[in-house]
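Entry 14. Ran structure prediction on the chain below.
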Amino acid sequence: MANLRLLSGGETILAVGAAGVAGERSRHWSYDGISGPSHWATLDAKYIACAARSQSPIEIRARDVRTTALPALAFHYHPVPLRIVDNGHTVQVNYDAGSWLEAGDTRYELVQFHFHRPSEEVIDGQRFAMVAHLVHRDAQGHIGVVAVPLSLGADDFSLKILWENLPKVKGAEVTRTDVKIDAESLLPASLGYYAYAGSLTMPPCSEGVRWMVLKTPSLISQREVEIFAARYPNNARPLQPRNGREILSSD
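Output, structure tokens:
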């Protein structure tokens, strides 16, 4: 699988060799109009994967799922100083080193998490108010993403902290050493999940991403959704064809 590199501003690119192309910026993309999802693959040669066959997100339907003994997800997250950025496509929290996820024999370091409204994932026809994507990277550079659906309900204290510290300028990371954030607080009590092979859901849409979609949503209040929606009323990529990919479900 091609190696993936995450830039500090949230853009994810394919690395080319040891030097890579980490310094390059690609053409503007968006979620509507002539730079929207249906045009991503033609906006820039780096985005050609957006038209490939194993793209994300997909709808997870009971009739397509095979239940098996998937490894339990063991989260080892720790509170870190808040580093938050509005990167022009979403609100993202960049995470200091030292927090990780164990999925079977693979250890993934937590790199960042960000949000989409509504949820990009659909489970048996249900689309959630929002979703948090927890983005991880293993020692070889492979990406594993945990999707945490967010349903309307009570306030989430962690989200309240994030929304109170939203950057006023797009693209500029705000660091608050006096404010701590713990990604573990975003997780529901039940960690059953679906797994499939897919892609990044934003350009360059690189494939070879291990997706772990939690079955149980966490809660978010209507007010918290509205705060995010004031910046990003719709930043969800449309569903992509499954194209025969296997979807696994934990017991």
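The longest strand covers residues 106-116. Will compare against last week's run tomorrow.
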